[in-house]
Structures are given as C-alpha cells and as structure tokens.
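Many groups now describe folds with learned vocabularies. In that spirit, our science desk offers one protein's residues alongside their backbone shape tokens.
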Amino acid sequence: MKKFLITILTLCFFFNGQTALATNTYATVLNGTTQYWNIADVSQTGLDGMTNLTIEFWVNFSTLPINQGRTFAITKWSNSVRSYSVDFNPGADGNNKMRFQVTSDVTNFTTATSNGDAVSATGTWYHMALTFTGATKTIVMYVNGSSIALTHSVQNAGSVQDGDAPFRVSTDGEATTEYYLPASVDDVRIWNDVRSAAQIAANYNCSLDGTETGLVGYWRFDNNGNDSTANANNLTNVNSATFTNTGLPFTNSCTVAAAPIPQDSYQIEEE
C-alpha cells in the first residue's frame, strides 16, 4: 500500500486579529413637516422613570434650525406628562443650538442649552449624546464624541418622570405646536445610566449588539423601526417616513468576530 501525503495550505486573512462586521445598512429620512416615529407609553418598557439617562443619535439636517425654526429630535413629552426632550432651537444670536430638558414631575425641570452651534451645516452627519445625572441634576452634551460647552438654565429635577407621553423621534407631539425634524436620523440609543466620555467616544461610530448593560432602547432604522434590545420597543412609522442606504454615518459594528485559528497545514493519509 502506498501512502500519499496531501498537504493543504490554508490561507487566513487577519485584520488585527479580528474581522469587522458591517451591520448599519439604512437610516430613516424625515420630511420636517409630518413624519415621525412613535411608541405609546403603555407599549414601551424602560424608557422613563429612571434616575440617570443617556440619549444618543445621529442626525443629518436637510434644513438647519436657523432656517426651519425649532425642531424636536427625541422626546417623551407632552404638556402634562413630561419626561425628557431634545430639541434644536435657533438662538437670538443666530446659532443652531441644542437643548435638553428632563423633568421629575410637571413643575421641576433640569434644562441645559449649548452655548453655540451644535450643528452648522446641512448634508453632514452629527452624532449627538446627552447625559443626565440625577444625583447632581446635571446635563452634559457631546457632539461627535467630544463634550461641548452648555449652560444650565434650571436644575431642579433629580430624576426622569415616569410619564404617560409616547416616545417619539422627530416631534414633540403637541397638536397645537408640533415641530418636526427635517433630517435623516440613525442609530438612536437610550440608556438608563450615565455613559462616560470614554464610553461615548469608543462606540458612537459603530453599531451595537443591543445586549449591552444599561441599553433600554436601540433603533438602528435598518429599513424598519424595530428595537434591538430585549425590551422590544418597536416604533410605528407615522406618515410614511422613508429610508436611505447611501451616505450613512458609519457601517461597521462595534462587535467583531473572532479570527480563525491559524493552521500551517492539514495532513490526510490515504492507503
């Protein structure tokens, strides 16, 4: 019997020992007049009634607030059952400012406004992050992973009210004073803790799994409004907001697959 030695060389491709996973494939596009995303309070889990809060999202304006007027991005708010809201509001000095409000009840607020432009151009993606620490009643704002200067106008709320208002992307939902967001939006995240500057900088530019500790709502807008966390806070598309799969703010995942184990050869003996 002859024995034949077959040597199979295996080529392995390595990228610093890891292979990147591209998971961000779409963003939602909002017309600034009627379109928004929504989930009723009775249908949501974990989006209010907390002591600490972090909100993150990507936004790309088609019309700047200085030309559009006040625009709401992320809200869980109504005049009687407030929790929190993020809006962009033209200042008297002509800046495109961002404001973040949190309330513990209908009268006690903690509110902060950026000192200058939070955004300055259309057709440009900006990553916004806002943190609220209940113990100190303080807000911190970040743009593209870096903190920006702000002014607290009120510091009375030390928690986030467990209110009955729906959670919305693109409007405050008030019938008489609705302000809509003229922008594309991607990768909205709600956390029930205060994300550090290092944590925000480390993962704002890539997609999460949805299983991260403290993450209570996560909407990738990958051609739908589904929540990637176990809370399943799936959003309803109101007035047919559309999607785009081009010009996204990022494509990679923060989680990467393990690289294959390198092997020099396989030996197969045949008689």
